[in-house]
């Protein structure tokens, strides 16, 4: 159907057709950019596939994450990290004014459920906007994402995650592992030579872990060494930095308990954990006031997304403060909301305006 139309249009003139470049998964993000385009019959959309393994698959507004029978589908386009000549798939546009909906059908990590959707000519108002489409896609995410979100804060809400299985190879041994597939997290791979990472707890009597933000591979260990004062190493979650993990999620996390060390001690107690997957690990010091002072750490935080280490520290300072003093107002200085899809949409609008200019420029020739 598309093919016929292209031939017809080619015979008319190509001077009036516009080509839209849409990146698929640029910068490791589960997103198309721009998130939607306004195209006319005869135009083309070039999908530029970035590293990872994505698709552009037509779906419907009602079922964003279900491939449409007989609809457009690029199939999986695996692209190795560092690829320079990115593969491009071209979609000729034949329909005028009818919205066309797409998603990435990659099930590992549930790309669609994490909002990786795209549209051509979505209505700007009414019920079927791009925003509504993306919200519907996100709603398909499994109930695991229903964490207790504190929406008062201007910090990002937790990113959805899903459980995935992968085959891990280490030398001659191969095994299957279940891991937390989290936006931006790397697939599980064991350290070729497991190493022990050392984190000093309360270095120079300051309320810090040093280093506070590390990367560790599967099989590695992390040893916390307690310096003078009376600290803990307690696992928490991104959304509730200053609460034990089981309190916010029901999953029992690791805990060192209080480790009092006096100023003249020369032997420092230690606490060791083993890294079992590549999902981020968050933690804090359970001593009164320390978490609010920013005494938190992260292992394998994903810096490319909103749940990065800096935001974790910010959230710890905010929630830690209000948990001890209710008179503190939530920070409102940033002016940002935790409405991430909105931010994405306004970016898309900006890109769209830019593309609008290039169409106009094209028509002038
Ligand atoms: C799309 O990408 C191609 C190849 O990189 C480039 O030549 C073209 O100018 C781009 N078009 C637009 C509208 O940005
Ligand atoms: C791409 O993803 C699909 C679906 O998960 C999988 O079947 C396929 O093996 C993947 N390809 C590569 C090269 O990883
Ligand atoms: C939009 O949704 C609302 C609430 O579900 C419904 O009452 C209304 O009829 C819908 N409008 C259209 C144009 O479908
Ligand atoms: C949630 O996951 C379970 C198990 O994978 C599946 O059976 C169920 O259909 C999923 N629910 C939704 C709403 O996707
Ligand atoms: C991977 O293999 C090496 C060498 O056999 C071994 O020392 C290491 O513990 C293995 N890693 C894991 C995570 O099993
Ligand atoms: C360490 O802190 C905990 C909690 O505040 C307290 O119960 C404990 O007595 C302290 N230990 C010492 C030796 O100060
Ligand atoms: C890794 O797995 C071991 C054994 O199941 C468990 O004791 C340990 O707590 C796990 N590590 C983390 C960081 O959850
Ligand atoms: C955390 O570590 C990552 C990776 O080393 C780094 O890019 C990032 O800047 C660090 N963030 C902070 C707040 O230190
Ligand atoms: C996100 O923005 C939309 C549109 O402004 C609004 O209707 C919705 O309530 C917002 N959601 C949140 C969580 O703030």
From TrEMBL:
Keyword Lipoprotein among record annotations: no
Keyword entries, A-Z: Signal
UniProt keyword Signal present: yes
Signal peptide range in chain numbering: 1-17
PANTHER family: EXTRACELLULAR SERINE-RICH PROTEIN, SERINE-RICH PROTEIN, PUTATIVE-RELATED-RELATED
Protein name per Swiss-Prot or TrEMBL: Cupredoxin
């Amino acid at each position: 159907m598309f093919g016929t139309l292209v031939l017809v249009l080619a015979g008319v003139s190509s001077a009036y057709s516009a080509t839209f470049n849409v990146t698929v998964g640029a910068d490791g993000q589960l997103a198309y950019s721009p998130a939607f385009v306004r195209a006319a019959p005869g135009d083309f959309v070039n999908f530029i596939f970035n590293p990872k393994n994505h698709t552009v698959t037509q779906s419907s507004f009602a079922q964003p994450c279900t491939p449409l029978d007989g609809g457009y589908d690029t199939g999986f386009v695996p692209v190795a990290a560092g690829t320079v000549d990115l593969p491009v798939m071209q979609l000729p546009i034949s329909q005028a004014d009818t919205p066309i909906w797409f998603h990435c059908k990659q099930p590992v990590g549930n790309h669609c459920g994490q909002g990786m959707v795209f549209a051509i000519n979505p209505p700007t108002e009414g019920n079927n906007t791009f925003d509504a489409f993306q919200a519907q896609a996100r709603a398909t995410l499994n109930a695991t994402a229903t964490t207790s979100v504190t929406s008062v804060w201007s910090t990002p809400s937790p990113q959805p995650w899903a459980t995935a299985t992968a085959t891990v190879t280490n030398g001659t041994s191969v095994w299957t592992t279940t891991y937390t597939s989290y936006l931006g997290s790397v697939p599980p791979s064991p350290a070729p030579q497991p190493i022990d990472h050392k984190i000093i707890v309360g270095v120079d009597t300051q309320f810090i872990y040093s280093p506070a933000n590390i990367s560790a591979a599967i099989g590695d260990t992390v040893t916390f060494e307690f310096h003078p004062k009376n600290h803990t190493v307690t696992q928490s979650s991104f959304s509730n930095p200053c609460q034990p993990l089981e309190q916010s999620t029901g999953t029992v996390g690791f805990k060192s308990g209080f480790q009092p060390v006096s100023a003249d001690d020369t032997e420092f107690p230690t606490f060791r954990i083993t890294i079992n997957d590549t999902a981020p690990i968050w933690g804090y010091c359970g001593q009164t006031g320390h978490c609010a002072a920013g005494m938190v750490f992260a292992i394998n935080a994903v810096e490319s997304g909103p749940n990065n280490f800096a935001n974790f520290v910010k959230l710890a300072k905010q929630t830690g403060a209000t948990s001890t003093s209710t008179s503190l107002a939530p920070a409102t200085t940033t002016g940002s909301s935790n409405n991430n899809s909105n931010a994405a949409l306004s970016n898309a609008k900006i890109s769209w305006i830019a593309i609008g200019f290039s169409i106009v420029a094209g028509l002038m020739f």
